[in-house]
Fold:
Amino acid sequence: MKTKKKIEFPDLTRTFPRSSTDMIAGIVHLPRMIDKARAANNNALGEYVYPCPLDKIVLGFLKSNAEIFSDVVNREEDPKVLQWAQEMTRFRTPTEKEILNRQILERRPGSAEQWEYFNEMRDQIDPSRTDIETWVELSDLEEGRDVALLQS
Structure:
C-alpha cells in the first residue's frame, strides 16, 4: 500500500512564502498563494493576508474562491495542485495567462494614499531603492530577495 506524503505547512511567522515571481501552471504568484493558504490553515500566517488582492486576482482567473483553493492545497502536494490549476485553466490561452501574469507583476499602488504607504514601506526597508515601483518588487525587497536594479 502506497503511503501519502505528508504536506508541509509553512510557518510564515518564521519564514517567508515563495516569491510572487515564482510560477506554477504558467501562473505567477500561485506558489506564494499556496504557501499562504497552507499557513492560514495551520494558524501560521503571521502578518500575511490570505486572500490578499493579488490572491483574489489569481482566484478569479482560476474561477475559484479562497475556501475551495485552501481545501485543494491543504490536502494535495504541489504536483497535484499543478494538475488542478491546469484543469481549472484548460480553456485559458497562453495570451490570457500572460496578461494575468503582467497584471500581477506590474501591479502598482492605485491612489495617492497607496503610493504614500508604499513609499513609506520601501523607505523603511531601503530608501535608496526608489526604482522599486510594484507590490511584487516591494515584497521581494522586504523578504530579502534580490530585486534587480531597473535600468533607465
